[in-house]
Amino acid sequence: MPKVIDPACAPHDHSARPPATFVRPGAIERAAGIFRAMGDAPRLRLLALLGQGEACVTEIAAAAGDDLSTISQRLRVLRNEGLVSRRRNGKHILYGLADQHVADLLFNALAHASEGRADLSRLASLVPPTNPTQE
Amino acid sequence: MPKVIDPACAPHDHSARPPATFVRPGAIERAAGIFRAMGDAPRLRLLALLGQGEACVTEIAAAAGDDLSTISQRLRVLRNEGLVSRRRNGKHILYGLADQHVADLLFNALAHASEGRADLSRLASLVPPTNPTQE
DNA sequence: TTAATAGTTGAACAGTTGATCAAGTGTCCC
DNA sequence: GGGACACTTGATCAACTGTTCAACTATTAA
Prior knowledge:
2 copies of one chain form a homodimer.
Chain A (H helix, E strand, L loop, with lengths): L24 H14 L2 H10 L4 E2 H8 L3 H13 L3 E6 L2 E6 L2 H14 L7 H4 L11
Antiparallel strand pairs in A: 1-3, 2-3
The structure holds a DNA duplex.
């Protein structure tokens, strides 16, 4: 039997550790908000769609097979966390990913989610290296 | 007033777009699960703590000022999504970040959350380039 | 102005989730 | 074995979240 070197909670000291507030508390809360907004499959699918380019609400609703109102509510959540951009074009309102950071986050997560069982090269097309929201 | 070039939903065609299933559906669901697990401030703070190195439950509970049971429940959620590693050391169970991917995700999110108003150099110490769970 | 299209917002309801407590398992030491 | 310590698990309950429906605002075209 492998004897444990230290009887207690060995290699690290039990009390001489810097407090959890190593990173400013506000950042944690904001990051959690961002994750919470992305932590819903329909909403994440919506973001993935926007990763392919801008789209108006009607278009998104058609692609998702959902109600306009439902899509609008989902977009509101994403917008509240600053994850999507919004601009008007006539009668339509075009949504897109807010910035490259969001695209990176999305890509990273999908890469992790597909780890070891899907070819990541397919994911690359989701978020091209150039800015997805060209203007 | 700037006249709109196209009367309808201009620059992109309204129906000639590949379906949202550009990335396999399972990956979206898993990624959403990961985000959901990280989308809670106490849980994210816990992950940030583990980013500094392994820790046992008692230690985490002390740092967070929370109940053992509460911490255990939070760890269960994170473990269900494969975000943390677990190994026994005598009476204690040491938790850590599951892999570098999780660390990257964490770092990326905190970087985005602090965008433009905090120096990111501080965050770098949270997730060192070397693997945080040395064995 | 009126009608039609496009989207947002508020309320209500069902489903989910997180904290807490009590009871359980596993490991160490005597 | 027995007791102490270190967790885990199941149940309960309050709080939150997502969807739906109805009513509302905004833009365009006639």
